[in-house]
Structures are given as C-alpha cells and as structure tokens.
Amino acid sequence: MRGSSGKRGTVQAGRPRTDAPRTAGRHDTGRGERAATARSGGAGGPGASRRVTATYVYGIIPSDVDLTPGTRGVGDPPNAVELVRHGEIAALVSDISTDRPLGRPDDLVAHERLLDATAAEVPVLPLRFGAVVTDARAVVDELLAPHHDEFLTTLSELEGRAEYVVKGRYVERTVLREVLDEEPEIARLRDAIRGRPEEATWDARMRLGELVNTSIAAKREADTGELVGALDPLCVSILVREPTHEQDAAHVALLADTDRWPEIEEALDEFGTRWAGRVELRLLGPLAPYDFVRT
Predict the structure, then answer these.
(1) How sure is the predictor about 50, in pLDDT bands with cuts at 50, 70 and 90?
(2) Distance (Å, rounded) from C-alpha 132 to C-alpha 139?
(3) pTM for the model
C-alpha cells in the first residue's frame, strides 16, 4: 500500500523569497525580544495577583528567520512564540506561567507541532520537551552564547534536510499464517493446545508464545534490513529504532535532503505494493531531526 505522509500538526511556515528574511512557524511580529519575568496579571493595584513567568525553549534556528504571525506553543491557552537572537542563531521561545505544571499531552503535541512545522522550512535543532530557563537573557547567556559556533555548524549541516520516519506494522493474520507455515514446531504446539484448558497447557502456551515472538523478531530483522538497504542510498543518515509493538515490522528514522522526498515516497510505494496485505506502511515527515542531533 502507499505510505501515508505529511506534516504533523497544522502550523505552517512559508519559505521566504531569496531577498527577504526567512520564516518559520507562526509568530506575532513586532514584539521583539523581551525577558520573561515576574509581572502582574490583570489590572495593577495593591490587591493584584502576580503571575510569575519563565521562558520555555523549543529549539534553535538560524537568526535570519522571521516567524509568521500567530504562532502559538505550549500553555492553556497556548502562548505566543517569539525569537531570541544571538549572533547567527536564534531560539524559539515563549513565556510560560510557573504555577502551571508542564507535561500535559497537549503541551507535548504543541512542542512537536511547532518544531516539525519549522523543520519543513528551515533547519532546526530541537530541544527536549520541558526545557525552561528563567528569562530571555538566560536563553542567551546559558544556551546561545556558549554554544553559538557548535549550533551554527550543525544548523548549516541540516540546511535543506529533515527527518522522516517509516513505520511498518505486520497484518497479524498474515504474519501468523507465515509463522505457522514456516515453523513446524509452532504448528505442532498450536494443535496440541487447541481445545484444551489453559491451566493444563500452560507450559506449552508459554513455549508457543516464545517461539512466535522469536519468529516474528527474525522476520522484523530481515524486513527492516531490506527496507534500510533500499532507502539508505536516498538518505544522509539512517537509524533503526527499537520496535514499539510486538507486531512492528520496521521502525526507521531517516535524515534526508527534502528534495529527495519524491524518491523516498516512490521507494516506499514499491514496498507497499510488494508487502500488500502483509505490512501496513506509514511515512511521517518532514519532522525536526530528533534522532540525529543532540542539544
């Protein structure tokens, strides 16, 4: 079958004209850099409560990027995203209230959505979910300034590239039929326990499960190797991820030039046809290069 593909999330970032600043994500322009510090919520006065804020950092991008209006990130309601620039790099940040704990599913989705939308247009170094510093000055002093050259070099290497993830899941009925046809011992054990009480066949059932899992693992290794062999010439780098489900057929992360997307999709179409009814394929991307950078 044809692998499904597309950006995760809905935030869009337009690639700029060559004579204009680049853009990433969505952003309320004109606010500039500012420190995220303690400030009053609502009208001032002796009885006014104070909402203490910190600065949440999503990732690092080149400084010649302007965010498009309306970018929102983590928070409830979602907070506006801004840029903190230093030299030739910049951080994607937003204010967050320190009295609201991070870690909700919506926060993780917002974090990844912003980074993935940005990665579709400009190189980005994603930070781990939950990276928080005191204010915008700390972003510069603790992150951008000490690592400026290192980050700039990595961003240059990522120019025009993004991560893609290929996931394959076995069709259970099909793969079990293959296992039974190929492994006589598995077929024998299945027949031996059929119709008998579970407590009377416990050892046989345990052995059957072990043999099935071993057989599927061998298939996974072979199928993943075949997939990697076909995709490797199209990629800058390729990484085999650990399976997340017992029926996983393949789980592969690719770092590739974005202009090779049609070739990658064509290669996966060929596998989809070859594995029709046996493996369901999905292609996710472009994504931020989570598997290929360390920040």
Answers:
(1) low
(2) 9
(3) 0.78
